[in-house]
Every structure is written in structure tokens, then in C-alpha cells.
Amino acid sequence: MSDDDSFRLSRRKALTALGTVGVASAGAGLGTSAYFNDTETLDNNSLTAGQLDLAVEYATDVDQEQNDEEPVTGTVNGNPGAYSYAISDVKPGDQGKLAFCPTIVDNPAWLYVGTKDGLVDKEGGKTEPEKDVDDTPGGELSKKIQVRVSYADDVKTNHDGGDNDSDDDIKCTNKTKIFRGTLKELFAQIEDGYLLDGNREKSGRQPYPASGDHEDQTGPCLCMKWWVPTGVGNVIQTDGVEFDFQFTALQERHNGSPENPFSSSSTSTNSST
Fold it and tell me: Quick check: is 209 in a domain?
């Protein structure tokens, strides 16, 4: 083999080697080439827990002729909160009203009314006139007081100082009656909890609507009128009765079949008494 052949062979080998490097380089270039891309960022994301805050506005009055005072109004919003409606010297012919307007902030809720301590009749002793008509132990006042309970769209108060004007002192508008009977019978209905209807326009029990704040009352109010019939007589002399109402709200969302909060197994309630 001549020197020229040796040179040509060596050059061919060299070209082949360069070609191999070129392929390797091309392969490396494909491996590092970039895809099209873009990035967008959504800032300031957060999750905030809502609230379920129950408050109950109330208005009460009494008409006992000699005790026809202005309606008492206020709001119960505590944990617990309370308001006492105390009347003494109740006689046949006396009457009065209690109105409750619940508001629930921030979420719709199932609203129950019930009682914490129930209704208790008390016998304050027997006068001679009562002994002549009543020989049973215990008081009879709750069985003689008549009550009527209604839903109402709104409650307004007024007082002009006239006689026998308790119907004018507290006005309940667009009423729908839901109960009529004695005070004792009413508490038999609510002692285990009674689910209120938040929308009378729809069939079945509906949750109470949410309000933006406690000044924005959107669900129905409850109006209760009580009276002692004039024919009751001496059987109620010295008797007394004590009772309480309790309102409890449970969230409606994800809770289509709420557990009655007045059952012994209930937990997690928001209530005003």
C-alpha cells in the first residue's frame, strides 16, 4: 500500500469519525430543544368559614285594664340569652301578646322552637273560694289560659294609652294560624321540638332564609296571643305557671334531614332562649 493510499484511508476514517460526531451532536441538539410554554398565576386565593348566628327579636305586652303598659321590645342574642315575661295578678279577662322574629346570619338554617325547662304549674295555696270549686292538687292556670299562635310577615308596635287596646299595641301582619288551644296543650306540642316553616309559599317545611345581618329580618315571625276567658272563675285563684321558649338553628346546607336538636342525642346547636 502506497503512502497515498494510506493517506486516503486515514482521511476517510477521519471523515467517518466526524460524521459520527455530527450525528451525536444533532441528537444532543434535539434532546435540549424547548417546548412552547406560558405561565399564568391566580393570586390572593383564600377559604373563609361562614357563620350561622341566630338572634330573636321580641315584643310583648299585657292588657289587665289597670296595667296596660307600652309593649316591651328587644333582642335576645347571647350564649345563652334570656328575656323574662313576668305577669302577676292574672285574672279572668286579662290578655296579652308575645311576638318573636328570628334572624339567621349568614346561612339558611332549619329553625326549631322548643323548651328548655318545660311548663310548670304551681299551686300558690287554696283560698276558700277556690276550695269550693277545686279539690285537686297542683295549679290549673295553664289549662285555663287560651292561646293562638300564628306565622306573620312582620310585627309592629304601637301604644296610644287607651283601654283594652292590646290588639293595637302589637300588630302582626299577614297572619297564618298554626295553633289554637290551651297553654298546656301548646307546650305538649313543642316540648320535643317543633320545626318551623321558613317559607309558607312552598309546600312542606322550608329552612329559614339567611339574612345579611340582624337588622334584615327575612323569615316569618311568630305571634302568640293569650287570654283568660271571663268564665274561668275561682278555680285559678293563687295559681301560677312558669315556662320558657327556646329557638335553635341548624345549618341547612348538606343537612337535608336535620336531627331534632331537642333530642338527647343532639349536639352542635346555636340557640337563644
Answer: yes
Q: In what order do the strands lie in the sheet with 72-76?
A: 72-76, 53-63, 95-105, 221-227, 146-152, 176-182
Asked whether 217 and 57 are in contact (CB, 8 A), the reply is yes
Q: CB–CB of 147/78 below 8 Å?
A: no
Q: Residue 8's Cα: distance from chain center in Å?
A: 99
pLDDT (tens digit per residue) in 178-192: 999 999 999 999 999
The reply to whether 42 falls in a domain is no
Which neighbouring-strand residues pair with 113?
194, 247
In a domain, 48, yes or no: no
Distance CA 256, CA 249 (A): 14
Q: Peptide bond preceding 102: is omega within 30 degrees of 0, i.e. cis?
A: no
Pick left, alpha or beta for residue 205 (phi over 0 → left; psi -120 to 50 → alpha; otherwise beta): beta
Place of cell 444533532: 26
Length of the chain: 273
Distance CA 224, CA 210 (A): 24
Expressed as residue numbers, the domain containing 81 is 53-272
Read off the pLDDT of residues 50-70 as tens digits, 9 standing for 90 and up.
678 999 999 999 888 766 678
| Closest to 68 in 3D by CA, of 146, 182, 173, 168 | 168
Q: Three-state DSSP class for 30? A: helix
Contact predicate 181/82, CB 8 Å: no
The answer as to whether 219 is a domain residue is yes
Domain count, the chain: 1
| This prediction's pTM | 0.75
| SS3 assignment, position 31 | helix
Q: Which residues contact 22 (CB under 8 A, 6 or more apart)?
A: none
122 strand-pairing partners? 240
Residue in the block written with cell 337535608 = 256
